[in-house]
Here is the input.
Amino acid sequence: MSDFYGCLESTSFRVMDRAAFLADPEVALLKAHAVSEEGFFVEDDGYFSFGWYGQYPSIELPIFDDDLPDGVRYVDIGEAIRVHILPGDVCQIGVSGNEKLRYIGGYIWWVTSNGVVAINGQTCWEDRLTENGIRGVAERLAKQVDDLCLRTNDQAAPA
Here is the structure.
């Protein structure tokens, strides 16, 4: 048995209020996690980005707490960024890696101020892909992007 090992990395994105972004406890957790994994959480010319290597890198960061029924809760990085990201900017978060050539690939999330769109690109040597299956994935992704853009246009329309 082996474990999935890979990396998580974001593209650069801007936030509406730098101080509020950095003061957010979930963003502080993101920053602490990146540092603890010997990754990075940087600000460059008003743009933020982050990343790290690790075992099972994920968009969900665990917070362990014995007072919780299951002993853990998760912080969704996409949602933590979504509430701060500058409208019009997109943060792409990618996870890629492998599990001893059994599972290869990863995930991509696109985070905007209006929502998060995700695609699973992980595959296994046992997978049996078809053209119709890929067409279905593309259609679901296109619908997610269209829905996100419609929300963007609805919010931008005058009241």
